[in-house]
Task: inverse folding
């Protein structure tokens, strides 16, 4: 693993189903983030974690949950998917301290039908 | 409210210079980031400004005016590979990034 990895790359999901998007980083970054990116809108923060064991809500947290059991992993769960959650999801990480560069995973393209 | 504005799309010619503007309104301000995003790929970091003035990095430069809530990204000697979206993001008082929708830059031969 080099950098930050997301899985799956893409997924078609039936509405009402549960889904977990995986994110793993090997840079030992303390901070991790989940964003969604929709056409015509900027990246919107869903949830974040400043360090292992802590999480926080971003701008659009409803319908999503996260956990941070260790430094490397930051999974995002959709408990019951809805079509409005169709989006491209990006996981990112950054080193300790404010205003450090964020590194992004390659993204997960999710379609809820 | 918090807001980032940048043009939706710009077109420029290979070899030329282009300036992509960004204005921001945030609750507190702790710096301005520019990222590049090629179609279907992840954003990658280009620059960070927290003090007024110009930061130069090769063919790319970024400028910040805190009093005007304004930044621009200057790309010189444009190459076809520079065709991408350029994302402006401001760091607010909680060091959370507020992102613009991105400027799609089209380079023509």
Result:
């Amino acid at each position: 693993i080099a950098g930050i990895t997301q899985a799956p790359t893409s997924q078609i999901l039936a509405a009402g189903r549960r889904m977990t998007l995986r994110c793993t980083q090997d840079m030992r970054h303390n901070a991790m983030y989940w964003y969604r990116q929709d056409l015509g809108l900027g990246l919107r923060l869903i949830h974040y974690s400043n360090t292992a064991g802590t999480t926080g809500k971003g701008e659009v947290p409803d319908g999503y949950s996260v956990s941070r059991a260790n430094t490397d992993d930051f999974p995002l769960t959709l408990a019951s998917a809805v079509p409005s959650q169709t989006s491209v999801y990006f996981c990112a990480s950054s080193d300790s301290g404010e205003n450090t560069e964020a590194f992004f995973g390659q993204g997960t393209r999710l379609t809820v039908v | 409210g918090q807001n980032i504005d940048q043009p939706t799309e710009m077109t420029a010619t290979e070899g030329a210079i282009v300036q992509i503007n960004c204005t921001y309104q945030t609750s507190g301000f702790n710096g301005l980031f520019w990222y590049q995003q090629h179609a279907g790929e992840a954003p990658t970091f280009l620059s960070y400004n927290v003090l007024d003035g110009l930061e130069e990095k090769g063919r790319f430069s970024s400028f910040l005016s805190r009093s005007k809530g304004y930044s621009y990204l200057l790309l010189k000697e444009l190459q076809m590979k520079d065709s991408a979206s350029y994302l402006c993001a401001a760091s607010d008082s909680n060091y959370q990034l507020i992102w613009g929708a991105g400027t799609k830059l089209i380079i023509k031969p």
